[in-house]
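Exercise 7.
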Amino acid sequence: MRAFRRLIAILLGGLAALLLLSAVLIAIYWTPDIPYATLEARYGGPSPRYAENPNGPRIYFRDEGIADAPAVFLLHGSNDSHNVWDTWAETLGRDLRVIRLDWPGHGLTGPHPKHDYGVAAMNASIDAVAAALGLERFALVGHSMGGGLAWRYAARNPDRVTALLLVDATGPRNPETSSEEPKSVKKRKPPLGFRIATLPVIQWIATKVTPRGLIGSSLRSSVADPEMITDQQVDRYWELLRAPGNRIATVKKFTQIEEQPDPDLGTISAPTLIMWGADDQLIPPRVAELFDEKIKNTKLIIYEDIGHIPQLETPEQSARDAAQFLMRQ
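Solution. The predicted structure, written as tokens, is:
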């Protein structure tokens, strides 16, 4: 009985310490939400638009380039926004119609009312924007999480997708691959922000406390050359994460279990360009090799000395490569 009481005392003491630590962190580092009107003025561009989305939030998007040209969607990754495609939008917009959106729980779109961040709910955003613009067919460009959503959409909607570009995209769950990572690639842990988002005890704190330094550290660890990340880029990621509801969405997204089975990569019929950073530590190049092996009609480009975000690390070259591929389709 004495040992049991001692255990209870230890547990209560630990809980008290945790509560005290939480209170101290919130008191020192508490970072408030930023109103949508403020963020839209800073990051929404000259003509922000919103598409109605049945059973979900209104989807923020930008419609740029040549209005009557073939359309291409640019789909950003996790904890990012449409702004990461600025250079690509300018380059592709010279010959194509370019649509950029913010996923639910990201950027200016805001959280899903039912906290649903599964594949079907997220990809409903593409359908909502396409319906608002009267588009039946279009190309999809997806980075990281956005790439994972893009190839799943392409597999399930072959009649709608004219071309597919996967930029350091997430692959199938439990993929089968015999390829190995190059020994020269030094493994690094996922960005600190990603790891914190999966810790149950700290998740609630993460919705209230978001130090700018944490965002900067996570962003710099995602690229091959941390020195190329600017203060303005860190501010953008940090501020858009603080849109009302986005931090809660991040926690919900990382803890949800996807119930919808993955489609077979071999069913993708759209011509596919696979673009990858050779030094990507989040999604290694062996995933690019898997896409190249399993999808029928592919071209693979590996960028040396580039990490997880080619459109940010080598924006001009990657945009030119994308434009050349899309203009041939």
